[in-house]
Fold:
Amino acid sequence: MTSDYYKDPYRLPDGPDGPFDNGRSVNAVRLWSGGLAAAVVAGLTGLVGVLIARVVFRVALLAPRTAGAFGDVDTVRLCVVAAVAALAATGLVHLLLLSTPRPLAYFGWIVGLVTAAAVVLPFLSSGSLPVLLATAVIRLVIGLAIGSLVSGAASAARRRPVGTGTWRTG
Structure:
């Protein structure tokens, strides 16, 4: 015989699928497909940013001018790091969607602060001002792309439980 007296007053009510269901559901395929697409866009954003800096503005960004329009291995590293950052952001937003209230608000703050740190970081090293500015602008655009695309994918991947009036299959 159990009584209501012994029940935990801080325990959340069980969801429709059991005690560990918080009533939230995420379409993981849609979220990670969007995250993969965001990774491609982030990598290409880095590449286009380097091309614009090196060809249009003639800034020796990430390599000497003799390395050509694409630079060298540092350009590849920038593109790969941008793509990995987009995938990490997708993992973060997936965790936030499953565990926090107002997950996209927290995600926006986290991405904004990480982007701000990435933009300021080049100015801690020595280098010419045009190179530092080009690096900061490229990182800002990459951060904006990741933040907007991954949050859009997260919004599209959220499912609402039946009965909330806004059932979405996505």
Notes: The chain has four helices and two strands. The chain has one domain: 26-158. Helices lie at 28-56, 73-99, 103-120, 129-157.
